[in-house]
Amino acid sequence: MADESLHLIATLTVKEGKLEQVIDNFPFLLEALKVITATVQQVEPDVLRYFAFQTKNSEGQDQLVMIEKYANADAHKAHIATSHFQNFVEQAKDLLAGPLDIKFGPFVVGYESKANL
């Protein structure tokens, strides 16, 4: 049986000074990511991997890169339809320098963890 999993990378380029913008004593964008990550882990069993790391692009802009893995394409469609995802997009839109840069596809080669070897 073919592997139906879907791997996704979503890059969020953050407006100058907005990565750690403090609203109500919390770094807003980072706190919003923590909330959605915890919610996804609790209520979306077909989201198999969901985490972010921070980097900068070639222009020096702050970026957050989401690494995601879904059991299949339907799991991804279900994820983007959830209220918690839609709420995150709405909250983050004014903090981003542009649209999300999303790339996705099937696993091709390599390993996901040493436990899989």
From TrEMBL:
Domain ABM residue range list: 6-104
Name the record gives this protein: ABM domain-containing protein
Source superkingdom: Eukaryota
InterPro entries attached to this UniProt entry: ABM_dom, Dimeric_a/b-barrel
Pfam families per the UniProt record, alphabetical: ABM
Signal peptide range: none
